[in-house]
Amino acid sequence: LIITNILMRVFVRRLLAAAGFAACVMVAVLYIGALDPLVAPRAVGVVTDALELDIRGSNGSAPTRPAQLPPLKPSHVVEHPAAVHGAGNQTAIAQPRPVTLGSAANTAELARLVDENNRAQTVHNADRFHPDPTSADFAVIVIMVHNRAGYLQILLDSLRAARGIDKALLVLSQDVVTNRELDDVIAKIDFCAFIRLYSPHSVELHPQEFPGTDPNDCPRDTPKAEAIARKCNSAESPDAYNHYREANYCAIKHHWWWKSVFTFDHIALLAAYTGPVLFLEEDHAVLPDALHVLHLANRALPAACPDCITVLGSYQPGGDATALMISPWHSVQANMGMVYGRAVWDRLKGCAEKFCRYDDYNWDWTLSRVSQIGCAPLRAAMAGLGRVQHLGKCGVHVHGDCNTAAVGAAFTASVEAVRPQLFPDALRTHEQPIGQIPVLGEVGNGGWGDPRDHALCLKMVGK
Question: What are the start-end ranges of the E strands in 329-402?
Fold first, then answer.
């Protein structure tokens, strides 16, 4: 390296004399690259992301940012206390500086900061809690967050009361980036370690281009012939019901898929983790023994139903607190509080072509189709007494009473009603006939006919 340094300096001096300052600058850039390969791509504008999204807007310009990059080692780290002091078998966590999204001056800058945040994967509260993926008490909880801060507060309060939450890692995946109410709610998390992520494909980050709404996108109800004459985007590809894409609906399926991809394939702390991951949404809430039951099920199912997804949620009140009812998985009743690990995820990811091309903007109905056609057959082990409840009175499909105080009070009352049944010593598994369930055909509920959505969904898994 010393000899290279000397030779390069001599070369630079001769170039400066022969070709002037511009040539010197170019060689200096290459020189820096020789010494620091992490700097060189940025200096010379080389695209280093193998997953860069090649979907262009109506004007033919490149998108403002690539698809999610694989995680990189942060450039500024502070070692986790367990690594410094050699405390037991705790996992060492490299702590980067938190990214301040509020400093963004425009959408492009905000997108850059989101990418930086997702690469950094800051483990908040790591100085107080030490998430150890090798521990039998460890679990991952992923929350899909949109914009309902009041509901999210109820969910987080319920997690605070869950026994064993201090041993878990919470992952919050948001598709709304700039929301002060969400920031205030999340800032109060003091009961476990957590990572905060942002979907890079949100409508907010792409207000004038796909996957947001491009100015040249076809309006939803435009007749196909008219759309072709207008030459609007994807005019040849309405959905099965002759409707064109609506970005706000498509974003939900993209977000669900992206958070799954990122959790299993890109979070460095979980690279070797094969245990349970509980998936929640902002309008869910958990009972105090939710994690206790999760671990009981994780121990019981390898023998009783190795291909089962544990389902902690139930839309029905009451039930047998010691039961795990096994049946074919379907979104009608088994889409809330789903728990699965890397083995199930790898099967689902192997069905990406089926998932990403099925004409249904609902992620859960799409999973039902993937399961029913045999690509990734899924079975459900459903908790007889639901440990996850649905709070939602307001949302995509439901428009009702948004009084979160009343919703929170009702949830608290429901917990007290079943408290004597909580924390069973063991769970009993048994087959549960569930009657007739919808058989999904070649066409789903629509809203997902645009080939750009198919391409983005597949690109997330490197296809």
Answer: 338-340, 379-383, 388-390
Question: What pTM does this model have?
Answer: 0.79
User: What single string gives the DSSP state of each residue in 56-92?
Assistant: --TTSPPPSSPSPPPP---SSEEE-HHHHHT-TTPPP
Q: Quick: pLDDT tens for 92-141.
A: 444 445 566 665 668 999 999 999 999 999 999 999 999 999 999 999 99
Residue 102 has what pLDDT? 60
In terms of Cβ atoms closer than 10 Å to its own Cβ (0-12, 13-18, 19+), residue 433 is exposed
Helix (H) or strand (E) run with residue 52 in it: none
Nearest to 65 by CA among 212, 268, 193, 239: 212
Sheet containing 308-311: which strands, arranged edge to edge? 123-124, 193-198, 169-174, 140-145, 277-281, 338-340, 308-311, 379-383, 323-328, 428-431
Q: Chain centroid to CA 107: how far?
A: 21
Residue 72's closest CA among 268, 273, 258?
268
What is the amino acid identity at position 306?
P
> Quick one: CA dihedral 377, 381, 384, 385, positive or negative?
negative
| Angle (deg, nearest 10), helices 247-265 and 451-459 | 10
